[in-house]
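A student in our group prepared the protein record below, which I am reviewing. Here is the record exactly as it was handed to me.
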Amino acid sequence: MPMSETEAAELRRLRWRCRRGMRELDQLMLRYLEREWTRDSEEGRAVFLRLLDTEDDKLWRWFMGYEAIPDVEAASLIQRIRDLPP
């Protein structure tokens, strides 16, 4: 089903927000956005939006496993993103 103009505008806005301070984070966040966003649940999307509000250095430590993720939902989504093929 084709995307509405509103949905396309939201994806463009989110794509811009996925641009982080590190190329590796950009790739991880965009991988989810491009492959999973449209078919994920509202809850999954809400968790992703919370991740977008997280500081880059904290996201990096979480994705690399250097720091425990206090939020179970965020930890689950980060693992899903890490498991997506490059």
